[in-house]
Amino acid sequence: MEIQREVGKDPAKGSLARCLSLTSGTSAEVARKLRELVTPFARFDSENLVCFPRGQDFPKEAILTEQNGLLTDSLRRKVTSWWLEVPERRTPSWDIAAKCLILGKPGLMLVEAKAHDHEFDLEGSHAKEPNRQRIAEAIFEANCWLNAKCPGWNLSVKSKYQLSNRFAWSWKLASMGVPVILLWLGFLNAEKMRDRGIPFGSPDEWLYAVLNYAKGVVPDDVWGRAIEVNGTPFLPLIRSLSVDL
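RE: above sequence
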């Protein structure tokens, strides 16, 4: 199940509001902000940045199989058929997706953002058959490959589905020759969200929260280093920042 976020009456009470703030501005301004998040691993086009969402002008979360410019038509068809038996259901959405250069090769930065501890998804997939079976097979394929590379993975549709699908998609894109930075982004000091969950007060709190959430599913030692998939890297990162709304 994808977590739905809305800005609502008070924009300070939404992770989406912070993503829109982060992606607001000129291409050069947004490229600089994104580059600072993932330095030194990626560079962004400061003149013709491809990024979704793009502030209040385009607030929709990124869906790789729908937004033009993120993937080629051929790759969009391939990844859709890998994930879905019946392509009527949407593929996963991302808080931010942006084109970038990773180690000099065109790739994608994919962002999963949280502002408080209750935003971590602990549930399993709510997809219905036959798509549920196809998704389970896709995640199983990714899990088998990753375990052959470095043991300790336990990706599944049964629990922490969002975590599993993020890593499965990153692996699949890399297997198709698209380098990926998978960024888990914590928004710090979102005090107006305290009625919904406990905000993250420091980078260490966010780091602990992610590692605790991923425990038993993602090996601790894969964060911050590139995983090579047939010569193409994907890099899981944990970063945090405060966004003043």
